[in-house]
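Sync notes, pocket subgroup
Present: LS, DG
LS reminded everyone that the earlier model was apo-only. Rerun requested with NDP included. Inputs:
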Amino acid sequence: MSNYFNTLPLREKLNQLGVCDFMDSSEFLDGVSALKGKKLVIVGCGAQGLNQGLNLRDSGLDVSYTLRKEAIEGKRDSWKNATENNFKVGTYEELIPTADVVINLTPDKQHTAVVNAIMPLMKDGATLLYSHGFNIVEEGMQIRKDLTVIMVAPKCPGSEVRAEYVRGFGVPTLIAVHPENDPQGKGLAQAKAYAVGTGGHRAGVLKSSFVAEVKSDLMGEQTILCGLLQTGSILSFDKMVEKGIDAGYASKLVQYGVEVITEALKHGGVSGMFDRLSNIAKVEAFKISEELKDIMRPLFQKHQDDIMSGEFSRIMMEDWANGDKNLLGWRAETGETAFEKTPAGDVKIGEQEYFDNYLLMVAFVRAGVELAFETMVQAGIKPESAYYESLHETPLIANTIARKKLFEMNRVISDTAEYGCYLFDQACKPLLGDFMKKVNTDLVGKNFNEGKDGSVDNRELVAINETLRTHEVEIVGTKLRKAMTAMKSIKTA
Ligand SMILES: NC(=O)C1=CN([C@@H]2O[C@H](COP(=O)(O)OP(=O)(O)OC[C@H]3O[C@@H](n4cnc5c(N)ncnc54)[C@H](OP(=O)(O)O)[C@@H]3O)[C@@H](O)[C@H]2O)C=CC1
Ligand SMILES: CC(=O)[C@](C)(O)C(=O)O
Ligand SMILES: [Mg+2]
Ligand SMILES: [Mg+2]
């Protein structure tokens, strides 16, 4: 097998990268009917497996889980996840031959082995569904020609796929039909029905391609969504402690601050987040985010270039072959950071205080969202896809950090995302060394407005507002958020 994307001529590469049609809600009036009465069998019951299954069942669909024998015999977590939620569980041999749709929600690194094990058991004309394009695009997996191959990819960590559904909302979702596998022409109808089943249609669905999804998903998770939130959290905490801020306060500000700050981003975009700052704080946060963009731009571009060329996948698959040596080493290193080891203090922090005392994170988020969006669009990803993958998913990742710090984020996201997150973090921390030397507690830990008279130059403020509001991520975000009529607010502890 070889990288499918690299076998395409440039014209077809650009064509598949550019597939991105925002689907009007009227396209989902058939609801789940295309899958009603069908047997949906999910392989794996982890972050996506469990949470998608819970949503699908609540949407009236017939869901069961097939797990590898050692998971059943060893009563592993995946077996506990499925049985404790009263799902039917069986072996591949027991459940796959009667399945109408087999949903592969195992780790990307296992996909080739898993698909080779389940494909011979799949009945003629069945459907194989992925939630990420890696196996098809980066590994070039070939699927039996009588099978339909589709993708329904939530732009969200598994835990929040369920949390948003329970709130009566959903998460933005990319759907696609693999052009090499749609023999009965039923792929799109099934993908749409599955997206309704997970609740994705309430947040927004893009008709995408396996190529567009994988090349944008890898970029979002490595940079703004996981990598930069990890780097920014660790550097912010270390700076506060270095400057004598109480470690418990610093830990709470960082752990919950990213959720409070990005909740404003979710509802009002970058400009909405900046509007939560005083005028003098907005001017300062703008200035340092401009500097952060200049420092990090080459790193964001390198990540996108390596994703496009297949170099990222090559080095990650090398680590797979090497027993996940880097992944496990970086995971252990992250767990040993002072931020991860310092519990949030029992101290009251008001909602506005998270903005006034944490300008640095506001600046990190603006720089990361805009850089990730700009870099994806320059590489051929359409703005709607880039928006979901950069701005909208950031608060959903932040929800996991608020729950149990970086440990929870790295536990819930895929192993592919976790590897990419660490890869970015390892490069970004030293890149920001000189910048962080100049950072003081006015930007992180203390109220920026304290002792200042609050006056600003009107023309400068008008220019900053104009720059924030006219960025393409704000233009497309305003349009996409209009469709998110069921979006709910989250109150932080
Ligand atoms: N995590 C996320 O939020 C997102 C993930 N995705 C995609 O969803 C897919 C699943 O990812 P995710 O939910 O994170 O995976 P998890 O690591 O959370 O869960 C993987 C599941 O697969 C099982 N599994 C592991 N190894 C094997 C194997 N060799 N054979 C059979 N089953 C195995 C595990 O159970 P056990 O070890 O007990 O057998 C577990 O139930 C991936 O393609 C990922 O890219 C897409 C969007 C977001
Ligand atoms: C949660 C999600 O969308 C990620 C980051 O792409 C993943 O976990 O792979
Ligand atoms: Mg993703
Ligand atoms: Mg991913």
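DG: Residues 212-482 form a domain with the N-(1-d-carboxylethyl)-l-norvaline Dehydrogenase; domain 2 fold (CATH 1.10.1040.10).
LS: The longest strand covers residues 148-154.
Action: DG to write up.
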